[in-house]
Design goal:
By secondary structure, the protein is an all-alpha fold. The chain has one domain. Helix content is about 85%, strand content about 0%. The protein contains 10 helices and no strands. The protein is globular. The relative contact order is 0.21.
């Protein structure tokens, strides 16, 4: 695992699974209406939570889910359902309406903080990322390999953080109308992704062929 080709393959696999460029517009949609400081705090918090979760799965792997009696397929189904609810909020702009109500009431902070859910989990640390980390850990031959995988995880998540921090520039380029269109399109894509998570989980239980 410490050989350069293996490290490149591991980085490429995890990068494709997490897809930092694809998460940037989702971050924009989920934080629409927030100021730069709030977005920066959410981006950093999502990075830290995602890194912590990935390290837990790297070190403990399937034992984490097995300890509480949760299979990966059950995790896929639960994550899909929760993600679908978020997609509905994006499609019907309920999230933005809540933020506007909070602003009009003079609240200092938004109660609707997407840093942990759905950004860190399941968008960044989703079933695919968890499975990839567990598989990489299974191929590790020692502490050096585990350290190399941990470095790869941090590198990919740092790219995610940079994509999130660049979100304001992307938002200015799109404008309000463009953001509304992107939010609804991404809501549809997230809904489809959520359904796919559920179908994959059901298939793992032998339901649906």
């Amino acid at each position: 695992m410490t050989e350069l080709p293996a490290l490149i393959a591991a980085f490429t696999t995890l990068f494709i699974i997490i897809d930092p460029p694809g998460l940037a517009p989702v971050f924009i949609a989920l934080t629409q209406g927030m100021d730069a400081a709030q977005r920066r705090a959410i981006a950093i918090r999502a990075f830290m939570v995602a890194a912590g979760l990935m390290m837990v799965f790297l070190l403990l792997g399937e034992a984490v889910l097995g300890f509480v009696g949760i299979s990966m397929d059950a995790f896929r189904i639960a994550g899909g359902i929760l993600l679908f609810l978020t997609a509905l909020d994006m499609l019907f702009q309920r999230r933005q309406a809540r933020r506007e109500d909070q602003a009009s009431e003079g609240q200092a902070e938004h109660e609707d903080d997407p840093s942990v859910f759905p950004l860190a989990l399941p968008l960044i640390v989703g079933p695919g990322a968890i499975t990839t980390v567990i598989l990489l850990a299974g191929e590790a031959q020692g502490a050096a390999d585990i350290a190399a995988i941990a470095g790869i995880i941090v590198a990919v998540l740092f790219i995610v953080l940079l994509a999130f921090l660049a979100a304001p520039a992307i938002e200015r380029a799109l404008g309000k109308t463009g953001l509304n269109i992107v939010t609804r399109v991404l809501g549809m894509l997230l809904a489809a992704l959520a359904v796919q998570f559920v179908l994959d989980g059901l298939r793992g239980f032998g339901i649906g062929g």
